[in-house]
């Protein structure tokens, strides 16, 4: 039967056509629902960038969205234009600040006050400088002290104590001066940490004798300071005849050189 055979011969083609249409429809439906899969550096969310250590910004993987991503890499990094860059002037240790020190990730001056420096150093113009105990201006002295005659001293006046020839006991006319010095030191005790007394002699006598005499003069003054309640009285030194204030000979100069001087630090 020709008619039936003809219908039977078309059936396979019709079925195949229906299957292809159905498959295309499924693909189209899948694309319309899920969209095309993204590949790096494109992204839909941070998960698409995670394996590269990045985040998704406007559908593109970038180093950072804000500073929090950069801080994980380095405390001195900041986020600029979605890239991690070093923050100008930032530091993590003093090694990053060759002319200063690192404080709160910022390079600052090496020192602000003398207490920022090691023992034997002073803060001068923001730097710790080795000190020989002398000064040229007030900036080289601890806070509250001022520079006078090359030494740091209190703002109230501390003057030398003078001695008779070959003597180390305190003269009667010097007791009031010593008490005034002690009162000054007690008033200014918050501005210094230590008191040193230096003994001096005139040029007469041997070097060894004068060093011993100068030491005894310094000890006499230091002992009286302690009796009068002065705090921080420490070292006593003797320079003998090595540091005269008057360079001539004769009693006019000698009486100026027989003295004990007080310095503070």
Q: Whole-number average pLDDT? A: 85
Coarse structural class: alpha+beta
Kindly state the number of beta strands: 14
The CATH class of the largest domain turns out to be Alpha Beta
List keywords for this structure.
single chain; two-stranded antiparallel ribbon; 265 residues; 60s Ribosomal Protein L30, Chain: A; four-stranded mixed sheet
Short description:
This protein has 265 residues and is an alpha+beta fold. It is 31% helix and 22% strand. The chain folds into three domains: 46-86, no CATH class; 94-132, no CATH class; 154-264, 60s Ribosomal Protein L30, Chain: A.
Would you give an account of this structure?
The protein is α+β, with helices and mostly antiparallel strands and 265 residues long. It has three domains: 46-86, no CATH class; 94-132, no CATH class; 154-264, OmpA-like domain (60s Ribosomal Protein L30, Chain: A). The protein is built from five helices and 14 strands. It has helices at residues 2-34, 67-71, 172-187, 207-227, 251-257, and strands spanning 55-57, 60-62, 77-80, 83-86, 100-103, 106-109, 121-124, 127-130, 146-148, 151-153, 161-162, 195-200, 233-240, 259-264. The strands form six sheets. It has a four-stranded mixed sheet. Strand 7 and strand 8 (127-130) form a beta hairpin. It is rod-shaped and about 135 Å long.
